[in-house]
Amino acid sequence: MAERFLRWTPAWFAYNLALVIALLGGFVLWLPWMLAARKRRANFLARLGFGIPPVPHPEGARTFWIHSVSVGETLAAAPFIRSIKNTLPDAGITISTVTLTGQETARKTVGESASAIIYFPFDLPFVCGRFLERVRPDAVIILETEIWPNFLAECASRGIPVAILNGRISERSYAGYKKAGWLFRRVLSNISFIGAQTPEDASRYSELRGRSDGVAATGNMKYDMAVPEISPALFRIMSAVRQGGGKWLVAGSTHEGEEAPILNAVRDLGREFPDLRLLLAPRHPERFDRVERLCESIGMPYVRKTACMDGAFPETARVLILDTVGELSGAYALADVAFVGGSLVPVGGHNILEPACFGVPVMVGPHMDNFREMARQFTRLEAVDVVESAGAFGEVLRGLLIDKERATGMGKRGQDLLAASRGGTERNIRKIIEMAGSATP
User: Fold this and answer.
1) In which region does residue 332 sit, left (phi positive, over 0), alpha (psi from -120 to 50) or beta (all else)?
2) CA–CA separation, 305 vs 320, rounded Å?
3) How big is the CA angle at 215 (ends 212 and 217), to the nearest 5 degrees?
4) N or C, fewer C-beta in 10 Å, the chain?
């Protein structure tokens, strides 16, 4: 077995020295950024462990700490968390996220299943130790790729088994981890089980870990997502437009550099498709105001969703800015075409299954590193259109609006692929029950 990354080892000292240097070196940059917004200040203090009460433990039952970074991971975790509760009804579950939107999503989707919903700690030894003393989990489950050396070392020193589920390693991350192989081989040895999304991911984990035992390709749990429900207020707005003969392009989880080409394309297609409307959902709430100003500068009439809660979408508006959290997934139900953001710019993409589950034809950009296998499958089956550059957005969108038969076929193939790829959640549940030993400690 490879040497574990534990406290007081040379690897531990080297990592924490680098961490201290980075924190001190970036102090003048991150401190003003953090102090500028109340939400960031609250997040910062919570991740240091302030205000976190001891987590209740059900007597005679296993307790699990499940970590999901943000919205996408939390939505993928929902069926898994419900399956744990169905299998072990008395189990205690603590859910952690890093982002505010992740917290809100967790409360909305799985709040009834959780003993506590908290922020994940900063990767500092004394902070991680404090969190573990409050939560006292029997096992920790980390979704996707969150490798925090100090947190894992603190778990190992307490004998707490850790599993990574839905694990993935992009080509870029893999190259970075290999450069620090002396560190990550020890860090990954603190993990009891790694359930990877694909055989390629499993192979990369095994190579970085230095051994293949405890690593398996168990599938992508995001395929097991429940069909999202659209909020009544958003349904009234969007359905009123459709009943009047309008069409919706839903551009979800967009990032800086994506909204402008989308808005320009919709504006330029206005003469040919006067009834086309755009629902624009920026990924980060702090960008709502910036996107509003962008609409003004481009000359696109818009309305914010929170400004038309009565369900009345102004006849003159071309754009609906979705300035709420947790409603995007359901909005795809009334889309005629969907674009999933984070892909026209090199962010890595977001989850294309949300529109696919409704049979909606999907557009993405070329940067789908975070969902490379999913994108590969959809592309192979011609269930997605890849927009190779920002300038090509309008052309690809126009093609889908003109060729309705092709668009319908794309949506149907994506929906069928999703249905055929389910099962990862159940495979991971079996592994976790096996790792935990039994339902009673």
Assistant:
1) alpha
2) 6
3) 120
4) N
Place of tokens 């004998």: 159
Q: For residues 265 and 397, is the Cβ–Cβ distance under 8 A?
A: yes
Tell me which residue has tokens 């707005």: 237
Structure tokens at 343: 């892909």
For this structure, is 73 an active site residue?
yes
Task: Say how far apart CA 261 and CA 265 lie, in whole Å.
Answer: 6
Classify 370 as helix, strand or coil: helix
Reply yes or no on whether the pLDDT at 109 is more than 90: no
Nearest Cα to Cα of residue 350 among 366, 333, 371: 371
- β-pairing, 384-386 with 193-196? unpaired
| Residue 238 near residue 331, CB atoms below 8 Å | yes
Up-side HSE of residue 58: CA atoms within 13 Å toward CB? 21
| 439 — pLDDT class (breaks 50, 70, 90) | very low
Structure tokens at 170: 């992009």
- Scan for tokens 């490379």, then name that residue: 372
Report the Cα 125 to chain-centroid distance in Å: 26
Residue 311 pLDDT: 73
The yes-or-no verdict on residue 26 having pLDDT over 90 is no
CA 263 from chain centre, in angstroms, equals 25
* pTM (2 d.p.): 0.78
| Cβ 160 vs Cβ 132: under 8 Å | yes
Lookup result for tokens 């991680």:
128
* Contact call for residues 427 and 134 (beta carbons, < 8 A): no
Report, in this order, helix, strand and coil percent for the chain, each rounded to 5.
50, 15, 35
Out of 3, 59, 73, 133, which one is annotated catalytic? Answer: 73
Query: What confidence score (pLDDT) does residue 305 get?
Result: 95
> In 3D, which of 241, 321, 326 has the Cα closest to residue 276?
241
Mean of pLDDT values over 7-22: 84
| Count of helix runs (H) and strand runs (E) in the chain | 19, 14
pLDDT (0 to 100) of residue 326 = 83
Give the confidence band of 440 by pLDDT, cuts at 50, 70, 90: very low
CB 332 within 8 A of CB 338: yes
pLDDT tier, 360 (very low <50, low <70, confident <90, very high otherwise): very high
Q: For residue 364, what are the CA distances in angstroms to 8, 337, 353, 399? A: 46, 11, 12, 14
The H-or-E segment that residue 175 falls in is helix 171-179
DSSP 3: P
CA atoms within 13 A on the CB side of 59: 0
